[in-house]
Amino acid sequence: MSGCRAVVRVPATSANVGVGYDCLGLALSLEATFIFEVADRLSIDGCEERFRGEDNLVWTSYLDACRRLYVRPHRLHITIHSPIPLSGGLGSSSACVVAGIAAAQALNASGFDPKGSLEIATLLEGHPDNVAPAIMGGLVSSFSDGRHTHSLRFEIAECLAFVAIAPPYEVRTADARKVMPQSVPTETAVWQIGHCVAAVHALTTGDAGLLAVSCQDRLHEPYRSQLIADYEPLRRTALAAGAAAYLISGSGSTMLAVCDGRKAAERVACSVTNMVENRVEGLWVRILGTHTTGTTVELG
């Protein structure tokens, strides 16, 4: 055993980034901390009572990773400190999955292995768009060849700021998948490919003008936006306040306004928080930057 205690820090993430459906994801400067201590029995603190049982996602991910690593799991005392909202869209579940895998590697094997954790996390999650940036940080484009996950990491321009906007209700991922069309015209596929490449360039160079015209999704947001009751008034308000782009984060209900600089982000955050018409009570709003390091593990 490498140690009896591990502290794992995992950033929040935003999948799809508009036009990068199931491919793109970015890490945000909102970080969950998970403390794992070898114990006589399983106990979980720091989360709602309903998540403290044997079906806790951190714990089940730890067990799954141990099985795949061919190591014997330990009983653990897990403490969770997570500011990531549970309404969905900022990778709260992916953070749990990654944390469990990282703990299995750190406490039972040869130490945290980002590449190995990505392979396991993709198998557990079904796709890498959230787990890849959670592990690697920055902006990540991923695909699977059926055997392995391939992820390309990019640095996001420092001038860009992100306003995370989460209404006080969730959109179930299963419902968000159901509303998606089973097939799309070739014209839509061509549109999406061209806009996705341009969006990546805009995010890495900080070209807010290019970002505004490239983040025009036709594949999933027209359908998923219907599941978010306050999508349209929040979108109109954010864009009117100066956001360069407005995206559904993951499958929602969280949304993301991408802004050219901190001051623009502050205007957007203030505008959506203080809407008079169509005001959303209980709205969670945070100005975030990018998380460049991804998952970290400390032993001791």
TrEMBL record:
The protein's Enzyme Commission number? 2.7.1.39
- Which branch of life, at top level? Bacteria
One Gene Ontology cellular component: cytoplasm
GO MF entries: ATP binding; homoserine kinase activity
Pathway(s) annotated for this protein in UniProt: Amino-acid biosynthesis; L-threonine biosynthesis; L-threonine from L-aspartate: step 4/5
Keywords attached to this Swiss-Prot or TrEMBL record, sorted alphabetically, are:
Amino-acid biosynthesis, ATP-binding, Cytoplasm, Kinase, Nucleotide-binding, Threonine biosynthesis, Transferase
Give the chief site where it resides.
Answer: cytoplasm
Q: Which Pfam families match?
A: GHMP_kinases_C, GHMP_kinases_N
Residues bound to ATP are: 85-95
Q: Where would you find this protein in the cell?
A: Cytoplasm
Which Gene Ontology BP annotations are present? threonine biosynthetic process
InterPro entries membership: GHMP_kinase_C_dom, GHMP_kinase_C_sf, GHMP_kinase_N_dom, GHMP_knse_ATP-bd_CS, Homoserine_kinase, Ribosomal_Su5_D2-typ_SF, Ribsml_uS5_D2-typ_fold_subgr
Q: SUPFAM superfamilies recorded for this chain?
A: GHMP Kinase, C-terminal domain, Ribosomal protein S5 domain 2-like
**EC category name:** transferase
What range(s) does the GHMP kinase C-terminal domain occupy?
206-275
Per its database record, what is this protein's job? Catalyzes the ATP-dependent phosphorylation of L-homoserine to L-homoserine phosphate.
Q: Family assignment?
A: Belongs to the GHMP kinase family. Homoserine kinase subfamily.
Q: What is this protein called?
A: Homoserine kinase
Q: What species does this protein belong to?
A: Olsenella uli (strain ATCC 49627 / DSM 7084 / CCUG 31166 / CIP 109912 / JCM 12494 / LMG 11480 / NCIMB 702895 / VPI D76D-27C) (Lactobacillus uli)
Tell me the organism's taxonomic lineage: Bacteria, Bacillati, Actinomycetota, Coriobacteriia, Coriobacteriales
Q: What is the gene name? A: thrB
